[in-house]
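Submission sheet (multi-component)
Chains listed below:
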Amino acid sequence: MTPRDFPLIFEHSVPGRIAAALPEAGVPDVSLEEIIAPRLLRREPAALPEVSELDLVRHYTRLSQRNYAIDVGFYPLGSCTMKYNPKVNEDAARLPGFARLHPNTPLALAQGALELLWRLEQMLCEISGMDRVTFQPAAGAHGEMTALMMIRAYHRERGERRTRVIVPDSAHGTNPASAAMCGFTVTTVASDARGNIDVAALRGAVDDSVAALMLTNPNTLGLFEERVVEVAEIVHAAGALMYLDGANFNAMLGVTRPGDQGFDVMHMNVHKTFSTPHGGGGPGGGPVAVKRRLEPYLPAPTVDRDGERFILQHDRPKSIGRVRAFAGNFGIFVRAYAYLCAYGPLLRQVSEAAVLNANYLLARLRPHFDLPYDRVCMHEFVLSGRRQKAQHGVRTLDIAKRLLDYGFHAPTIYFPLIVDEAIMIEPTETESRQTLDAFATALIRVAEECATNPEIVRSAPHHTPVRRLDEVSAARHPNLRWRPPVPTAGGVSAGED
Amino acid sequence: MTHGEGWQAHKYLPLTAAERDEMLKVIGRASVEELWAEIPAAVRLRRPLALPPALTDADLLAHLRELADRNGHADRFACFLGGGAYDHVIPSVVWHLAGRAEFYTAYTPYQAELMQGELQATYEYQSMVCELTAMDVANASMYDGASALGEAAVMARDLTDRSQVVVSSAVHPHAREVLRTYTQHLGITVEDVPHQAGRTTVDAIRAAIGSGTAAVIIQSPNVFGCIEDGEGLAQAAHDAGALLVVSISDPLSLGLLQPPGAYGADIVTGEGQPLGNHLSFGGPYLGMLATRAAFVRRMPGRLVGVTTDRDGRRGFVLTLQTREQHIRREKATSNICTNEALNALAAGIYMAALGRQGIRRVAEVCARRAHYARERLRTIPGVRAAFDAPVFHEFALRLPVAPETLNARLAERGILGGLPLGEWYPDLADGWLVCVTEARTRAQIDTLVAATAEAVRA
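Outcome: structure written.
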């Protein structure tokens, strides 16, 4: 640590300090060794930090100030749907009847929790046009894996051995990774000149060895798959199933439903579409919704209604099994339920505003960047920084870093992979026109700087807590943990390795 | 509201109807409807969504309170339930800090220069998990303990190029189910080794493993609360060239018990909920995963590492990302992307609040109170310990009445009794798994004992 470094919590540590009030055992004293054999006991205490409560509060408060968040400013990360996370939802999740409910509580004493999940399932079915939902998957990728396993079980029961999954070249990396975790091989299909999945290529790729097509709609270019109905017919005609990566569900709430588009199964990211906070990387929620024909394979248990009672139904003989312990990220689903209750049928206006905001921002930025696929966008759009790279030697990474100096989070960059120097922007519906204008002004100014002062862009950021970080050396010489200082002849040496 | 034409004010939607019209003008469209032109008419929804009418905040909270109040939560009942989720005291400071909006409304730290807070906190969390487990390296988090165990099995297969895993039947049944789900399509076979008298024996493990065994999987303390002979089981696994994977159901136990790294574990997974996270009916929880330095490149999940900025200052970045799905796609070590970062943050704050002395002290209070409860309960006529092995804060008893019946009686007295074991272990239909943490007072324990004695007698 140098004087200019922000200290680690370990570097605040002073032996003997503590930030918790500890109880006495308060039961008749017995020697510990009588309870647990000495050889099973820990010999060296864990070198956890020793700090006072105020030390702890200041450390983490200051760390929070070295963060960027929706509550701080605009977060136009494409494909991430960084919308406002309502406060009342946090209050709801913290009600003791939810937050303090043990997952092994007898079901008779957990009826309120089960009813909430049951009601949320009805809502998600209506919005998606599907028939049943599992709440076990903890995130989108977890939902993908769950869905693909159900697809495998479906084909197996029909006596078919289908080994391939088709994924467009614009797909999220989780799609092929999830397919691999389910033992499928991945066939990549190209996109056409309009940014849709190439239907001719799809036809060529589909045969009776294909289990499913994994499609994102709107796709990662922010474009609606115009031929989705035809695509579904091709896939179904070959006996395969249609899987929707629901990452972009925010574009179509109340406007069009995946179940009506021909999808058999989808996951939803409640931490995108339904406003649950992303928590700096998680927790999320990745419920999977299915059409009736996949229902038998849902992970057990499901939340079922039995007359006036709600139960966890374990009797699912064809189930793929559990994908996590207990009933899913319940606290996240409380928030999602509260969110849907706050909108009701007005939910459609969420998508209308999200799509309007995206098209407006696109109109403002279009003169200043290349736009590889020039169509009406949905909730997001993808620009290319290739002009800036070719003419001024400024990469998209530099543009992203320079935006940080203007007080904005950067868009998603270098994704989707099919767009050179991609800049993927998703404003969401919760941003005002004034915010969109301020962001457009900043990004246009950066585009101008690429011509007038490229060095200031290439060397950005300049006004963040730290400047451009060396990722190459981080990977080459991994230092993934603090280590306690070790005494040396000349004193104490720093413990980092 | 007429469908498709109404535009209502809503507190989460800032665009006014006037702004909407101005913006449409800028993009050269006459109406919002025109934005849907590329959606085939056949799949457009021509009716309003059939959702319950919108609620105001007051009505919403009233509705949710009504649902919440129907639940028998751990503030209303003295909770002696464990079995994979544990009711520990959460210091107020934990969620006052983890609940800061700068943390919880942030995304994954993709722009490192703007996200040093999240990245540093994750690095600190990784470091504390390493200290607690005595392992070299820990990741930024997995979904939960059970899915972390599933991933560990895949990791062991990749590391050993062997395809069988052997799992003790004293590992939590949910974790074993998830293990099977995760491995079922990857050519990995899972063999259960029955526990003997509540523990996993070295002999049974030696009999079950061979040259095809990638990993021996145990949980300690196990599902019955019994502390396993980690050293002997590690030796047995290593003698056969297999890895030892240890699942930890309550990391606080490591304040008192020998950490897996000290007895030779190769991969440690764990459920991090007990470290400052709410019970929350099963989630969001926190999967922990730690391993040896040599195995880091086969690890699933995100890792934060130290680097420097161009001025030479220390900084933190996501690193070794070539393991991950967004780079390696189908060749990634896992498909995981979103993890449980906020729960890991809370766990880090919790561990720092307790510190080096506090974590041992809390663990010791758990063990002493559990011991007291176990000794008192087994004096009740007809009640006996299911197993004699040493335990941490959870223990199995056998009852002279059906556990469900007893629990119903206890619920009338404001007590959430132990977990009936029959559903998981049919040969333990009279088994009752009682958990006593530092959150249970002596008075609550004494009430449990008295109420149990009365109910058993009746």
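Remark: The two ends of chain B are 63 Å apart (CA to CA).
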